Amino acid sequence: MSSQPWSAAEAFDRAPAAMAMIDADDGTVLVANRALAQRLGVDPEMLVGLAWPSPLGGTRNDFKAIVEALAGHHRAVIESRLGDLIDPVWWRQSVAKVVPDDGQPYLIIQVEDRSAEHLANVELTRAADHDELTGLWNRRRFRRELRSAMTESAAGHDGVGDHDEADAAVGLVLLDVDGFKAVNDTFGHATGDAALSAVASALVGAAPAGAAAARLSGDEFAVFLRANTREAASESCARIVAATGRVVVGANAPEIRLSAGWAVGCPGPDPDRRVHDLMIEADVAMYANKSRARAQLNGTSGPRSDEGSVADAWPPHRVVEERGFELWAHPVTLADGGEVVLHDVTLRGAELPVTLGALVRMLEMAERHSRRSVGQPDRYLIHLPDFPLGVGSAVNWLGRAAADAGLSPGSVTFALPEARLLEGGRSAHQVLASLREQGLGLAVDSFGAEVGSLRLLADLVPDQVWFDPRLLIPAAPDVPASGLDLIEVAVALVQRLRSLTGIAGVEPAQLDLVRQLGVDLVKVPDPAAYKPVGVVAMEAEIRVVSEGAARPREAGSTTGS
Description:
Blueprint: H1 6-14, E1 18-23, E2 29-32, H2 34-40, H3 44-47, H4 60-70, E3 75-82, E4 89-98, E5 106-113, H5 115-129, H6 139-155, E6 169-177, H7 180-187, H8 189-206, E7 212-215, E8 220-227, H9 230-243, E9 246-248, E10 255-265, H10 271-298, H11 310-313, E11 317-322, E12 325-333, E13 339-348, H12 356-374, E14 380-386, H13 391-404, E15 412-417, H14 418-422, H15 427-438, E16 441-445, H16 451-460, E17 465-467, H17 469-472, H18 482-494, H19 508-516, E18 556-558
Parallel strand pairs: 10-18, 13-14, 14-15, 15-16, 16-17
Antiparallel strand pairs: 1-2, 1-5, 3-4, 4-5, 6-8, 6-10, 7-8, 9-10, 11-12, 12-13
């Protein structure tokens, strides 16, 4: 600075803009003016010798970025976020490089704090593409990101040119709040807003990592997700629908029901057309399901295709959850083509002392839901993973509760863990005798896959026994050789029992054996989609299910290439 006129040095020092002179080679601060020191809360002398931009919270890598920006230029403007994670600052650094005729090159840097402007821009951007009430994306942002997802999937392959569309897919779920106008008219707009916010929270909670949710219009929502295959995308969509079938808003507010449909598309040329087709197909599926559900509520058949079923309009969903129990509803298509909604009541006795009155109230709730969904009393599965009573007392007590709730004989089945059923050796016979006397059925929850356990259960010969199909045969691709023995035992069991839900994860060689034994293959939904005990069959015929077997058309569809 000694070679500069004093007037220039004084002007630099007293300039209102925050400035510093930096060594162009090593990045150390040569001099800083008062405005910069005041902005940083230090004396100007304390900045001399520091490595730039460490006074701003930067690192040596940030100085390298300045040098690279100046390469081939005399001036540059760098905007960057510096500082710690708790209190970062957005700085704009206007840099000019000075090369004196008789001295060392240096940089003159003018510093501006642009944090307020940056935050304002962020808020404006968010307001432009987010829904104010729910915080989800709006329609414009959703369609833009959906198109980007289809394009990214297409461009994400290693090769050049055509790619295998089976290796990338995008699933789209559209959801609509049923009867939302009635909610506003009956409970007020504040409750309506709370309902929409509750739906948004449910969608965010149900969507897998990387998925995106949006509020497209007043009561219409959407989610899209990426997957490696069509099948994986479809399964993820089904899980979202199952988890958001009904949304509880609050103690004094109505329960919100959602109609949903989904479609799966693969990337390729003309992503705009593909996005349009995907939206149309999911929309058609959603309104078809809405019509079927409305027809079920009204006691009419409603529109349906040859493959349509109650499962299309009523995916598995939680009806109510309270401390001590959950009530889920699962659609089931019987072997004779009949359709019912199976109610799965899970009791967690360790969390809450369960009284007879509470059980009666819970079963009455299941009965009311059944009447709303299919128009008549239905089948009820009461799941007992952890009940504080002995198995015999539990069955007697629950039998009384079912009778007090007005449930018809033969419509109630209790699911007991294998260990509870078989505890005390032959006491299981007494349990089964008690069930028969009361017209109740028995389900075996989490039953072991050992041949010995199956034969032990075969000795019991109850009127009605269900199995969890996910546990009879290992679902892993490398099914051990003993799996063939398990199938033989299971088929032999079927001749002595009235029903068998199915065997999941059977390999082709084992399926051939099943066919040789004369076992019919039937199409049922994926057992893994059902919680907690899997698909059930209630007719006296053999039902062996493979994950590789054809499945019925679900509450969505698949868009071709």
